[in-house]
């Protein structure tokens, strides 16, 4: 694949920048790692960038202190779910990543699936559940293995792979502690891949697919962020034509939800049929040393620092006419 062209403007033209990191979600620790990396990258490019933790400071300080735009390095609720995006819209400060509606919908895995299904995009079968009994009934319908997870959480937090009926109670209770909305999902056995998208509208492009090979097939929170045992394969080594089909599917999933700026979709490929299934889309992906968007971008010739600058340059408002 040809190297992506970095079209970011000069650092001085971007003004005073806040890197939003930390926050109040269960992914605070990872967000701080992402934000620290982004902050260093932007400063290395001459950007007047400053850390800003919404868990410790009121967002209206952004306006009072003259910030011109925000790089959102928050993950999970109160950062990736449309709430911060809405506040920045009211403040009139452009921000990176999808807008209010797309961020809110993408954070809700059930709503995301409903939209994808309506558009004819493949995603594993699921059931929303409200009790242990409903989880057990879903297990009888969806079969083993089955995934039980919170609807509005990320980084596999609160997720359980259920292989027998006796596990349903603990799995439901673990998920429900993270979110009152809980879902059960058919498990797709096969290759696990992820694919980022950069850009907006007709300019949006899927980056190279990354194939993930985790220890014992368990790509959990620990193996995502804190070990070096997980393998990330770029080029992905999939059979001929599969990468292009996955990129096309992910790009359509991104545009269907109204995403802009950037996002990253997770996909499972059925080992028998080779059919790809969309799992979810992350609208504020990780930017840590183990993160996947920088890895995919690097395969196109775009460095971590230039990726951060390009994303910052794409900061926008849903309603630019309302900018103060």
UniProtKB/TrEMBL annotation:
Keyword check for Metal-binding: yes
**Binding site residues for Mg(2+) 1:** 266, 280
Per the UniProt record, the source organism is Hydrogenophaga taeniospiralis CCUG 15921
- Gene3D superfamilies under this entry? 3.40.50.20, ATP-grasp fold, A domain (3.30.1490.20), ATP-grasp fold, B domain (3.30.470.20)
Organism classification, top ranks? Answer: Bacteria, Pseudomonadati, Pseudomonadota, Betaproteobacteria, Burkholderiales
Superkingdom of origin organism: Bacteria
- Top enzyme class: ligase
Q: What is this protein called?
A: D-alanine--D-alanine ligase
Q: Which cofactor does it need?
A: Mn(2+); Mg(2+)
Cofactor binding summary note? Binds 2 magnesium or manganese ions per subunit.
Sorted alphabetically, the Gene Ontology BP terms of this entry are: cell wall organization; peptidoglycan biosynthetic process; regulation of cell shape
Family, as annotated: Belongs to the D-alanine--D-alanine ligase family.
Q: Where does Mg(2+) 2 bind?
A: 280, 282
Its annotated pathway reads: Cell wall biogenesis; peptidoglycan biosynthesis
Catalytic activity, per the record? Answer: 2 D-alanine + ATP = D-alanyl-D-alanine + ADP + phosphate + H(+)
Where is this protein primarily located? Answer: cytoplasm
Q: What is its EC number?
A: 6.3.2.4
Q: Which UniProt keywords apply?
A: ATP-binding, Cell shape, Cell wall biogenesis/degradation, Cytoplasm, Ligase, Magnesium, Manganese, Metal-binding, Nucleotide-binding, Peptidoglycan synthesis
Explain the purpose of this protein: Cell wall formation.
Where do the ATP-grasp domain residues begin and end? Answer: 113-313
Keyword field contains Protein biosynthesis: no
């Amino acid at each position: 694949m040809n190297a992506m062209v970095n079209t970011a403007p000069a650092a001085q033209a971007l003004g005073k920048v806040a890197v939003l990191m930390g926050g109040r979600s269960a992914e605070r620790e990872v967000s701080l790692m992402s934000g620290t990396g982004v902050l260093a990258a932007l400063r290395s490019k001459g950007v007047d960038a400053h850390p800003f933790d919404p868990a410790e400071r009121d967002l209206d300080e952004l306006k009072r202190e003259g910030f011109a735009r925000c790089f959102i390095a928050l993950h999970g609720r109160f950062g990736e779910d449309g709430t911060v995006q809405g506040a920045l819209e009211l403040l009139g400060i452009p921000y990176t990543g999808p807008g209010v509606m797309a961020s809110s919908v993408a954070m809700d895995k059930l709503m995301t699936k409903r939209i994808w299904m309506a558009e004819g995009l493949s995603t594993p079968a699921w059931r929303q559940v409200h009790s242990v009994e409903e989880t057990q009934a879903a297990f009888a319908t969806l079969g083993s293995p089955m995934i039980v997870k919170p609807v509005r959480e990320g980084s596999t937090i609160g997720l359980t792979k259920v292989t027998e009926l006796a596990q349903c109670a603990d799995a439901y209770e673990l998920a429900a502690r993270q979110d009152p909305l809980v879902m059960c999902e058919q498990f797709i056995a096969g290759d696990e891949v992820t694919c980022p998208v950069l850009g907006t509208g007709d300019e949006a492009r899927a980056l190279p697919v990354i194939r993930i090979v985790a220890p014992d097939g368990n790509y959990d929170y620990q193996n995502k962020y804190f070990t070096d045992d997980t393998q990330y394969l770029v080029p992905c080594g999939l059979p001929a034509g599969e990468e292009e089909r996955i990129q096309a599917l992910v790009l359509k999933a991104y545009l269907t939800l109204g995403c802009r700026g950037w996002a990253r979709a997770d996909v499972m490929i059925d080992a028998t049929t080779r059919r790809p299934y969309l799992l979810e889309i992350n609208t504020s992906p990780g930017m840590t040393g183990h993160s996947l968007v920088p890895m995919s971008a690097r395969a196109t010739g775009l460095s971590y620092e230039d990726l951060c600058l390009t994303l910052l340059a794409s900061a926008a408002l849903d309603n630019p006419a309302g900018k103060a």
